[in-house]
Amino acid sequence: MTQVNTTIFRKYDIRGTVTGDNPQLTPDLARLVGKALGTYLPRTFGTDRMFVGMDNRLSSPPLQQALMEGVASTGLNVTDIGAVLTPTVYYASASYHGTGAGVMITGSHLATQYNGIKMAYGAQALADQQIQDLLKIIQEDAFAVGGGTIDTDYDMINRHMAAIQSKVKMARPLKVVLDAGNGLSGTYVPAVLRNLGLEVECLYCESDGTYPNHLPNPEDPSTTKDLEAKVI
After folding, report:
1. Can you give the pLDDT at residue 217?
2. How, if at all, do strands 100-105 and 175-179 pair?
3. What is the distance between the alpha carbons of residues 103 and 125, in angstroms, rounded to a whole number?
4. Three-state DSSP state, 27
5. Shortest CA distance to 138 belongs to which of 24, 28, 19?
6. Do 115 and 215 lie in a common domain?
7. Cβ distance 135 to 6 under 8 Å?
8. What does pTM read for this prediction?
């Protein structure tokens, strides 16, 4: 029976520390999660392709690579969609003929010593008992075995942004200030807003996974002070 830290298998994601002497979320664990997903999703939902993206944290690339290798080892085909926004993974999963799934490697709004794994099948998020089912597969080493492939589609984010843009019509011109907190929204969102006719001023729109100015966490009032100074 494989021993893993069960506390990081949470209600809506798998999340833990990636630094320190005893990190909770490692590439080895990400590989096991990939193997569990590649076992569980096809037999439960008929999944035949998984799209895997990541945020710009420095710890994300090795976690993404290990997870994709784990998925492919079960026979499920994988598409690497690169560094993207979390909703892009859900877009990819939901738009794939009803048999797609998605995984996002992201620490979301947490400090850089954390990272996480968010999962979806079709248009639904994997959550609650489904995540516990993955844990059970890992603990019992009950993995499928196969020869899935890993390919790439780094244009997925552009198609997602184009889809958003096609659904929005502005009633009048506006000036907006975007504080991206050095996350990936600063790479992709300004162009969408400008194409919609908005005047955009960017704060911290340069991608930097160390988040030198502030964490991309709008729930923390201290992170919005620079934005407030621009608009209030």
Report:
1. 87
2. unpaired
3. 10
4. helix
5. 28
6. no
7. yes
8. 0.96
Per-residue model confidence as pLDDT tens digits over 124-181: 999 999 999 999 999 999 999 999 999 999 999 999 999 999 999 999 999 999 999 9
Alpha-carbon gap, residue 103 to 93, rounded angstroms: 9
CA distance 218 to 102: 25
Strands 100-105 and 49-54: parallel
Instruction: Write down the catalytic residue from 60, 73, 108, 185.
Output: 108
CATH of the domain at 179: 3.40.120.10
216 pLDDT tier (thresholds 50, 70, 90): confident
Answer yes or no: do 125 and 47 share one domain: yes
Q: Residue 19: which domain range?
A: 6-154
C-alpha distances in angstroms, 123 versus 119, 144, 157, 163, 184?
Answer: 11, 24, 17, 16, 22
Q: Is 207 a catalytic residue?
A: no
Q: How far apart are CA 179 and CA 128, in angstroms?
A: 32
